[in-house]
Amino acid sequence: MAEYAPNVFRALNGIFCIYKPAGRTVFDIVHALKTNLARELNQMPGRPLREKVVISNTLCSDNLPTITTVPDLADHPLVVGLRYMKDDFRIGSVGHLGKHASGVLVMGIGNGLSKLRDLATAGFLRVYHVKGQLGMATHNFSPVGRIIERTTFHHITRPRMDRILAAVQAGHQKHMFATARVDIQSQEAYELAVGGLIRPTDLKAGAVIYGIRCIEFHPPDFTIEVHAVNETCAYLMKLIHEIGLELRASAVCSQVRRIRYGHFRLSHALLTKHCKSSSIIENIEFCHELVSESKLDDRPALLVKGNNCLAPKLYIESGQFTHEFSD
């Protein structure tokens, strides 16, 4: 038995999660979802035609006009058009992914858009697998950019890569304590650290890296895992470029893949080819627990509001030197 279109439309309210493929923008994904949902609902049985009252000249037994109701053809889809248009669906996303990035994308539909604002305010940790290629650099740090430099990379080893990444992580952690105006060796810093991840209150303050490590190293290709907040895909691509410079070589980002957004993981994500109304409704129910009040309140420790929340870029602390790279 076919589903009733109005019931399906009312059920499309909440938070769901999809896997965004590389090569498509978020705008393209949203446009495709709206188009597919409108086409699918228009193929389902819809509400019946409205009825209109017709007063007939034929007299009944009481010498009164006959009053009947008939379907109002002015309400027919062939007259007024399709019942559902793509603009009837309000769909948004949180945690933007660039065109060349892929991975977990949290989306909201209908009244789920209000939950998206709560997710954005919570500032949950995001985890990425970022692949890089040593030996060349492009003008915009992306894999499709114009190559502007080629270098040798045979002198780069896994231990050297690990030292650079550890310096990046240490530099960001030290910066966050400095932003909070807390001595990293003090009891106050310890109590702040055990309370949760320290993050800026201003979501536009800049990217903060909480963990970074190399998980694959097969020169010229390597993969790093990054745990961060307030990051962008452009920042992660530039991060690979700056790591290449610290290695006395060059590197370009070949892939950015988000594997987790807060409590949302790859196991929660729908493939775009499976994004039908029934699958989206099931995913909304599946993800409902992930946006409950208890989950949204389980957020990292905050820093003091105000101008103290500087914008950390790429802080590398290693031995006697610390570098800061601006955007």
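Next protein, fold it too.
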Amino acid sequence: MAAVSPITVISWSEFIADPPLMYGLFPRTPGTLVHDPNRVMILLDSNEASQKEARVLKVETIEELNQLKTEILRKPILMRVYAEHSKVDDYGVYRVRTRWRGDFALLINTLHPIIQGQLTEKFKEATNAMLLGEQFCLEFDLSEALERWYAEILDTATDCSRNTTTSRHTRIYITNHTKYEHCFDCNAVWCVLCSPCWMLSAPCYMIHRAATVKDFQHFIRAPFVMRTPLSSGHIAEITPESDREVLQRSRDLLQQQAEVRQAQVRLQQTVPVAPPSYSEAIASPPPVTTQPAQLHPAI
């Protein structure tokens, strides 16, 4: 795994349809994600509402922290992340807004030297805090790296456009207390729409948090690779530095996936869904689930 890219992303729909795309770490079980806990750590939940808690790793003792550190540094981590890129083209008399949404399986190769160096340094700080009897929260954040990669791979910037990129479910928390609540971070939405609420709640939270918990936040910086299957049966690995033809194919693919996702959202919002009949209900396929299974490691 040390030779594999530090961070790999695959479109979630392609990944769940063919899990072996992720370097053979998962068996071919379309629609069901089966994994070997000895080979890969999964930080996701089949329930969208539980995604945040799936990325909070609690420890109570220094022994548990050291054990978690060893586990993280010896096998890759799989997460499900989301990115959104918006472009506003201003042509003077009118504006055109375009939006892309991406849903990705993201693998952090913790065995790669670039990743291991960053994680090890921050684990030392957390260990020192715990040895002093302090409450702490160690946060590894992939938001900046993911947003930068998504904007670069789409490459939609023009002289008359404004671009913004956001992401979700990109943080991993390791704590013996509670995770830091980023909803209290100052941003434009809070200032414009909820200024009185923010002024009353955020300072109190931040003062109390600083007095009781030691927060360590680290933005992981590493190159991305996107893997996607080709019609020929081969797998293409795409980076912002890929040749023009391959890169254009990846942009077209991302835009098609974003358009399909937007169409599905609009359809759900506008078309009422009738309850299924009895025969349809018993014939419907089971939902995607995540379950561990002991597998023999690949040779």
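About the second fold: Residues 244-270 form the longest helix (27 residues).
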